Amino acid sequence: MLTAHDLLLLVLDDETGRITPGVSEPDKAMAGAVLVDLAARGLVDVTEQGRLVVLSAEPPTEPVLQRGLAVVEEYQGRKPEAALGRLAKGLRDELANELVDGGILRREEHKVMGLFRTNRLPANNNSYESEMRSRLSFVLSGERQPDARTGPLIALLHAMDAVTKVLVLSDKKTAKRRAKEIAQGDWAATAVRKAVQAMQAAVITSVVATSAAASS
Q1: What is the set of domains in the chain, with CATH numbers?
Q2: Which of 15, 123, 124, 199 is disulfide-compatible with 106, CB 3.0–4.6 A?
């Protein structure tokens, strides 16, 4: 499972199979998660000037990361946010298909007003997701330290302002403060941390731009 798979599971409502209301820029955040995974594998990095660079052209085994690496190669030398739109194209469906094939989600087709077909992705087997949510809750309460799996997820959720929207937390104020600390912390290797920080900035920029366009 990739960070992008985990992020999709978190932002989907288990009952309705739709993106949880109020979650901003989920597709770009999942695209950012792909970059974070590529950085964690030592395949890409973000320079001190904030530019994408490919460290290895050896393709990963996962199709999602293979496509992601190919996109980064095209956008090498540019800022991460420039690649997010391209990375996000078709990504949600690709991740969903893999989760359906793995038995974690199921696909349901519905008709709106008897005319338009829509797909929903409710949970099929939520044991993996439940364990992940439990780990995230422990980290956000301060009972556990973030690791290479929980750290990027919390940082991306923080960038989306979605920590308290997608997680059931007993102390939301503490969780938000803890998420901010983790997003700014040094819990990961340098390459991964730089990628996460770049993704945060890119997602926040997208959210601000979308909000500004909607209000104009």
Answers
A1: 3-203 (1.10.3630.10)
A2: 124
